[in-house]
Amino acid sequence: MHRWSFDDIPALYGRTAVVTGSSTGLGFAIADALARRGAEVVLACRDAGRAAAAADRIWAGSPGAVVRTLPLDLASLASVHTASHRLHDEYGHIDLLVNNAGGFRRRYSLTEDGFESTIGVNHLGPFAFTGLVLDLLQDTPGARVVTVASNGHLNGTIDPADLDPEAGPRYRFAKAYNRAKLANLLFAHELDRRLRAVGAPAISVAGHPGLARTEGGREMNRLVQIVLDPRVNPLMWKLSQSAEMGALGPLRAATDPLARGGDYYGPRGRTGHPERVTSSSLSHDAVVQRRLWEESERLTGVTYPTKRSRKNEASS
């Protein structure tokens, strides 16, 4: 069986990729790989200083790379709108949007707009951002929206009418994270269905990193460092893989010429090279997908384009 790797990524010269949460870890590994293959990469990050440092690291390894930074805080709808306006000012189209930013919070907290932070940063912020920039992708041949999910979704449950069921002292970060990653896949599948319904050439796909050694959320840095420190927990270190290996699942979703809308790529187990895998049956529930979509539009105030794509209209 062929083991898909960085060498399988085709040349990406002339293509523009926006990668959220790309200053470190998994997002940086994704952005770096895309830049090394020739794509113009936009690092959409909350911290401008960390984004600039990440750009410097990419340039150091790929001196000819075209890398830009974009301030984006997915915990703030105001920031999401500002970032969308800037992309529209600077680009006529986008070929690839990788919704990578996410993570979870150990303690209960709210975003600037009053959403529980884990669902806000992992789902509602990316939902709003994707909807606001979708017109830059929707009519672009070969364009893709890639959602970075997690095996955690397999343990997730969700009630679209109540995305914050464990408010306050009842909060459990693992439940919140699994719920958010399930929301990611419900979104990815529903987005692809809607793109097909309007005849758009763009597709929605998803990928997961397996058990990778990444930060997993800024507030989790200390905990993650302890858990994955080989001196403290050598077994966990052996059972996990590097961010570069973890990035291969989302990268395959983003670049494999054979990928189809709705596909999901990642290790079949905790670690390994990415394969086409199947997400949970709940993530494919059309009723839950639609209910979550409608609730996400209501909460964020972002309504997705409903017109048929210009390409489809021209051929009618």
Automatic annotation (TrEMBL):
Superkingdom, natural source: Bacteria
Signal peptide feature range: none
GO molecular function: oxidoreductase activity
Keywords: Oxidoreductase
Regions crossing the membrane: none
Gene3D superfamilies, A to Z: NAD(P)-binding Rossmann-like Domain (3.40.50.720)
SUPFAM superfamilies in UniProt: NAD(P)-binding Rossmann-fold domains
Region feature Disordered, mapped onto this chain: 259-284
Cited Pfam families: adh_short
InterPro entries linked: NAD(P)-bd_dom_sf, SDR_fam
PANTHER family associated with the record: PHOSPHATIDYLINOSITOL-GLYCAN BIOSYNTHESIS CLASS F PROTEIN, PHOSPHATIDYLINOSITOL-GLYCAN BIOSYNTHESIS CLASS F PROTEIN-RELATED
Protein name: NAD(P)-dependent dehydrogenase, short-chain alcohol dehydrogenase family
Organism (species): Lentzea albida
